[in-house]
Specification:
It is a single chain. This protein folds into 2 domains: 215 residues, Rossmann fold, CATH 3.40.50; 119 residues, no CATH class. The protein has 378 residues and is α/β, with parallel strands linked by helices. The protein is globular, with a radius of gyration of 23 Å. Helix 1 packs across helix 2 and helix 10 runs antiparallel to helix 12.
Amino acid sequence: MISCLRSTLVSSDEHLVQIIGADTIDDAAEEILKALKEDTDTTRTASSRNNVIYFDGWNGLGASAVLRAVARRLAASATSPVGLEFEQVIHIDCSKWESRRALQRAVAEQLELPVEVMEMFDKQDEDDFLGVKKDSRAEVQQVGREMHRHVQKMDRRFLVILHNGSNEEIDLASLCGFPLTGYSTNKVLWTFQGRFRLKPRMKVDKAMHSAGTTDVFISMAPSREEQEEVWRYLLHQDTEELLAACKIDIASYGIIHQPTQVAECLLYMLELCSRGSQGTHYDLSTHGGNYWVCDGIIRRWLQHGERDVSAADDDDDVLWRAAVALQHEMPLDVDYYQHLSSSHLARYVKSKPYWSSPAYGFTRVPDGVIPDGVPALL
């Protein structure tokens, strides 16, 4: 796939967004590495700010894959290019968000803090066991101070790559003690997006105001006139990311183990979103997996030989467990449904035939049920 790179700047609320033309994960990774290079310009001052970079992918798609590609390239380089001499790259994937404390612990583990410091997490978790929910557990302040001292003592140049699954910007300087202001040459590369956790730009912009620590905002856009191939490629990349990162081994259910299958589930959810604009509320955040089963999206894979199940009861049980597991791994942001018309993916959703009635709303017609020549709603 040949691409022609271009870059433009647009204003978005209180920050500038750099939009770069790129058609592949590799192209985007190269552009991000350029952005991470330390400026050797002698005019740099303490007020120069380009240490914290947010990457939005292609309207959310591909962001996680690009961050991972950047980490791989830096790890594989025997000699670092000028400006990319990081003594330590800390790669933290918190796409499945647990808490600020869990993020702090993950960074502390990679810094290899002393045992007595790590034990502070366990003690605080014990204190919070009955009174504080896991997702509400804040960072441990004493650990933060120890991390700051440890980082200062190591005197290394760090790059932190963060997949942020929360709904707010994280100030890693205060949370983990990384110097990121003044003359510091440490860098942070992070994203909200990843593995179909798609956030509309409006929500990303709003979250940026929570901490105000991000200096650079980068987004990608297809550089080719024919963009459909690019969007389908990115869809495939995100499905591979999702399957590779699943904590629940979906493949063990014997149904969902190919990127094309996961992509079909996502596209069907987007199709339901588009119908929702016609007055039907599907509550996809709760019942998305149910539609995959009831409308035959997953069952069709069984019929096409994706799995050999002898007992019908076992068959149904496997279907439901697979649907629940997959929905758990790819929860679309609810606000994304409301802004679907602005999504580039929406134009590639192929509508499937369905019946419509005042009593039952939309009912999908299974494949092969409608004879040739008989019209259906599309």
